Amino acid sequence: MGSKLKSLGLIGFGVVAGVAASLQYSALAQKMQGLPLPLEKLSEFTEIFGMIKSDYVEPVEDEKLLNEAINGMVSALDPHSAYLDKKSFKELREGTEGKFIGLGIEVAMEDGYVKVISPIEDSPASRAGIHPGDLITRIDGVPIKGLSIDDAVKKMRGEPNTKIDLTIARKTEDKPIVVTLIRELIKQHSVKGKIVAPGYAWLRISQFQEPTLEDMVKKINALYLEDPALKGLVLDLRNDPGGLLPGAIGVSAAFLPKDVAVVSTNGQVEDSKRTYFAKREFYAGRVGSDPLAKLPAAVKHVPMVVLINTGSASASEIVAGALQDYRRATILGTQSYGKGSVQTVHQITDETAVKLTTARYYTPLGRAIQAKGIQPDLRVEETANGDGFNALRSREADLLKHLSNDKEAEAEAEALSVDEVEEEKRLVELAKKSTPVEFGSKEDFQLQQALNHLKGVAVKVTPLKTINTETAANAPAFAPAANPKTNTKNNANKK
Fold it and tell me: Where is the PDZ domain (predicted)?
C-alpha cells in the first residue's frame, strides 16, 4: 500500500461529495507484483492506440487518448468510481471544505443524463427552482447524453458570475424547461435548527463537511440555551447526500453511548476491513480537544426522531442506521437512497487521482446499506395523502452498474401492475399542481408527524406495510454492537 498523506474520509456522491476513506499515493509497482498481466489484451490496446493515431480522421493528442482510456476503464466499474484530472481533483478537495464555484446541485448519472439528486440549499440551483429528480439533458444548448458524470460536472463548473443555460426534462412537465443560472461561490451552511414547539427542537444537517460537527455542537448548545428543558429533538437528514465520514461518526457519537461501534467497512484488501467507533480519534483526530465535550449531557438521552427520505444517502444513512440499530432514535420518513459503498481516492500525480470503490458500509448490527438503504421504523410520506416528490425519485439500486448488496440477493425487477402504473400517473399529475415542501416549516407534514411521535400522539403512517423487521427488534436500548471483527469476516465469506 502507498504511504498515506492525510485522512479525508469522504463519502457520498454528486458534485460536492462522492468519495470516502483515505487519500493515498498509489505504489503501482508494488501492487502489481504477483499479478498476471493480460498481455494479449495489452497488445490489443497498443494496436488500437496506434490505429487511432495513424488512421483517425484528425490528429488526437496522446494525453487525451490515454486519459479517456483510463477514465473509461474506471467509470465502467460502477457509478461512483472515476478518474480525476487536475480540475476534478481540485474541485473534489474544495468541496470537502464546504465551498466551491458552481451551481449548487448534487447529481448522479441516469440513462446517459445527469439526474439531480438534490439542490443545495440557498444556491443558484435551489433559487431557480430546480427539483430533485430533474434530468439535465443539455448544457448551454449542447446535448450531454453519453458524457461521463465527471465531464458533465466540469461543464457546469466555471468562473464566478458566468452564465449557464440548463435544459431540464421534468416528469411533471410535458416539455423541456430551459433554466438560466449564474455560477457563484457556493458556501454551504450544513447545519440549521430552531425550536419548533415548546420543548421540541428541529436540527437539520444538509451535508457532512469539515465544519459540520462544530457547527452542530454550536447549534445544539444554542437550542438548549433557548429552551433548557427540551423534551424531544428531531434530527432532519432528508435530502442529505452525504459528505465526510468523520462528520457522520461525530454526529452519531453525539447521541450514542461512549466508544460504541458506529459503522464498519469490508472490501477485498485487508485495509478496507475496518470498524469506526464513537471515539474522538475517529471523528476529531488523535490530537486536540473533543468538540463533543461541549455538548450538554442531556443530549445523550433526549427522545429523538430522525427524518430520512430517498434523498438521504451515504453519511446520512450511516447516522440513521447507527441510531436505529441502538434504538436510540425512531427513524421516520421513507426508504433512504442506498449509497453504501466506500470510494478511496488514490493520488496518482500531484494533480490527478483515481476515485475507486473499495468497500461496502455496514451498520453496527452488520446490515449492508448498499443498494438497499435504511428502512424507516415509521413510514410517513411527504404529504398526508401519501403523495409527493419523493415518489418520483430514484435510488442507488436504479443506477446502471450499481454495486450489489452482498448481504442478500437483490430482488429482480418486476413489471408494474396496472394499478401501480395508474398510481404513478396519478402521482405525476398531482406533482404538476404541487411544490416541494420547505423543510422545518409548519407545512412540513413529516416534521409534524415526528413531533406527534415525540409527544405520544398517533402518527399518520402511510397505509403500507410497517417497516423495519430486520433491525434491533430484539436488542435492548443501547445494545452493544456484535463483534466487529466477526462481522467483517462473515461479510467477506458471503460476498
Answer: 89-157
